Amino acid sequence: MLSRPEILIVGGGVAGLSLATRLGKSMGKPGKARITLIDKSFSHVWKPMLHCFASGTLSNENDKVNFITQASGHHFEFWPGEVASIDRENREVILSPLLEADGTVVLESRRMKYDTIVIAIGSCANDFGTPGVKEHCMSIDNLVEANAFNEKFRMELLRAFANTSELDIAIVGGGATGVQLAAELHKALEIVGPYNLHAFGKAPPKLHVTLLQSGARILPAFPESVSAAAQKELEHIGVTVQTNARVAGADAHGFILKDGSYIPAKLRVWAAGVKAPEVTTAYGDLTINRTGQILVNPNLSSIDDERIFALGDCSFIQDDPLPATAQVAGQQAKHLARYLPAWIEHGRKVPGCVFHNKGAIVALGKYNGWAALPGGTVWGGGISHGFSARLAHLMLYRQHQMELFGYYRGLMSCYSDWVETFVRPSVRLD
Predict the structure, then answer these.
(1) pTM of the predicted structure, to 2 decimals
(2) Which helix (H) or strand (E) holds 357?
């Protein structure tokens, strides 16, 4: 063990930032360990809300958590960078050079010592090797990608507006991300409509969104009744939903389906499948599965190295596979925050992490929402829909903010967002 244990947390998503914040309080503040968070970005957003950033219905500045600010207020350190590899023999991580947008080197490759490392780098969409997807499709796995899509969306809307033409968008993937993005895009266009009418004297262009799902129904993680109701709601607001639609390829103008049909689309979004980032293949020869997830024991330690833990979407428990959701990642982060200190200080083994399913919520913008909860009644379980479900979805986001900021700062953040609704547009216009 090092004289002062070095705990490295790789990835500042839901799990990583929550763990860094909690360990900063329990071990960083009293000087029991040095906690360092590593991420290639400088800020955190709650991943289940990325579809709102992509559509422009959320303000980036209000809803981002700056890593430097969070670190300075919660007794951990932050270093920007991406872990290129792990030297398990010398207990070091090797960071890739940090580059500017033009390729200029800001920081050379660096090495950082660790006593314990926690990998929480999340996941990304899985194109399954489908021809043309990487070259012609966009995704919204992180804030950079969500912002890039929003920029393209606004520019294509402007072009369609000037040419009095329709804007065709196709989304592959009928899970929560694809379904919510489809609804949120229509919400954004409804909000921006009055601005166009008053500024340019004409109504906005017609938006045509097609949602492609390879399976028999959308939202397969929810009960069939929710899937049917969500599809009906999407179709009501103008989304074309195609199930059993297997994509064979993509090009610069749309998607080719395996049945030979073609779906034209100016904007093409791939939101199907989940896999770990490819960098896991360079993490010290750790055992991974076919989707790149690190194989871990029930206590979240790697099956190859007890000093390395992995949690959230980038990990896989062979005996008890769990879905790649923010709920799972959050519970695992709390588990490690509770038991890692005793393991590091006294060598007490971290017990197995038991996941408690609290249900799932999906919100279709302002139109509808569903909460599928365990049990037999609506509030103790069952399914609720409408405003209560949409409010519950929003409260999950607010709860996440309060976990990071603390109760009073979290309330102030809610108040600040409310005030913003009176002074700024409710959709991104520039």
Answers:
(1) 0.87
(2) none
